[in-house]
Amino acid sequence: MASDESGDRGRQLCSFEKWVTLQQKDLSELLQALTQKPDSPGYDVLLSQLVEKNIQHFQDYIQQRNGLVHDDVSAFFAPTWCTSLENSLLWIAGCRPSLFIRLLYALWGSRVESQLTEFLQGMKTAGDLGVLSAKQLFMVDGLQRKTVGEEEKISSRLASLQEDIADQPIAVIAKDSTGKGEVNSDPDEALDEHGRAMRGILDEADQLRLSTLKELLSILTPFQAVDYLAATKKLHLCMHEWGRKRDHKHGDKL
Amino acid sequence: MAEIYCGVMSESDASKPSEPNSRSARRRRMEIRRIKFVAGGATSDTTNEEKRQKLELHPATVSRECENAFENCASDGERSHLERDNEKLEAKGISNSNQSPVLSPSPSTTLVDLEVHPKFGVASVCGRRRDMEDAVAIHPSFCRRENETTSELHYFGVYDGHGCSHVAMKCRDRLHELVREELQGREASTEWKSAMERSFFRMDKEVISWNEDLLGASCRCELQSPECDAVGSTAVVAVVTPDKIIIANCGDSRAVLCRNGKAVPLSTDHKPDRPDELRRIEAAGGRVLYWDVARVQGFLAMSRAIGDNYLKPFVSCEPEVTITDRTADDDCLILASDGLWDVVSNDTACGVARMCLRGKAPAGTQCSTESDAGGKIADKACSDASMLLTKLALARRSTDNVSVVVIDLRRDT
Prior knowledge:
Chain A is mainly alpha-helical. In chain A, 73% of the residues lie in helices and 0% in strands. The termini of chain A are close together.
């Protein structure tokens, strides 16, 4: 791929590709850690460090991306480096923060079911069952409610911003144009102004993604957290790969 | 601590039974509750004992005092006004049990004590929905009938809202008060059925008049007031007495009794295609149309609910009431919203609940070993059961809010 392109787009693409590569690397590290013997000395510390490291990587990516926005924030809302599949699922240039919770429910769901029979036969206690403890479930539920609320607030502000383009001054500049894009006054100033507001929203969305992930991981035990992080990365990488295949099949993008 | 308890006493004593529901009184209670929760850890047995004695001595104002008593032990009163509060369950269990050493030196006393302190667990989560429309109300010893000094009545309710959450919230805050008024206002020969029906009708009326006067609403549908008529809630209410279980149900939440390991449904879901419900709707001039599932007038997928004024009289708020005698074979009672029942059968739910209760607190052992640990363990078992059922519902991809209440009915003999 054209990672050596110069200009904003090239650097943005490059940043994303590095992020994908880093995720792959992190994933193998996480999976490797999960195969180790749970009773080996310092295991929990190792897992915790791994979780910290992954959070740091996510934080770094957000920061780096933020540095690349400049006056081209729209590139992140509709990234050319992502597949159509990924782009169709974007919420403000990334995943919905509430999706972190859904993934957790899905992840542990299958395990509960498989252990239920043993539990009903008295071979397991309630504590063994279901990976998440009662307390954890309540904290996750609380986090979910908070996250959905925050998400709705940001979504609502995004809606206003999207409506703004049909209003003064942008709509008026368009109205006064010849219809072929030629205009009397320069639209750039208005669009840049709008872009700055969009950038603000992007910042907030990124912060919400980060804080949600951090809080969720803090609810989990180190082992659960590593297991969960591996699942997030698998999901991301798979969606990217599946999207590529589907784009290829449909003849878009090669 | 002493000042706080004095405060509680005088508040209780001063309150007139005729106005137990006044807003200011409730606010005061809430304040006291808050203080107490902070101070909860330091509760002394002596204070509790005094409190208990007082409780036994004044049956006339007992429901108020009971509530306070429960608050004193940082127990159920606190939980009762909250939709979800399980994080505090364990802490409560511990304080709760402070009373036991004083009150239950022998199994017989323990039995009485347990009647005052029903063992229950509650779990209520948003799950895969983005908004929470379920509500749960738990009021141990919410009422005592005037001529029966020993029979405490415990109230449990699960409400599953639709359209918005506010009708469910109103039910959570009010329905038990209405039930209490109906029960206390009549002679002891009170007909359960009519008392429950009157409470539900009054609840429905309150909700509708509140809808009409939307001032003070803080929910989303406030912005769309014409549609506020299209908001409602199911209600499944259990009143547990020492010898009976009274269930009043309206909608598709459900009460299931676990008896000797077998599931005995104590309510029948109100679905529009239930033959008798279909006849009732059509007799009233309504229609049942299918859109995914059977719906009243093509809209609501249940045939009875509190609220939903736009579908009256086809959608009725009249509860179906069942009265069941308690037996020694009873394990527990499960109340839950359809978020559970859609994906977990009655039998599976009973199996899970029974295993949790059996695994944690074998009957009989708790009193003889360490009486103060008994309450805590049992409470934990019920919480485990409600939580495990909730987890199972989520694991089975329930797409709705999930609320589960499990009440231990075993006699510790």
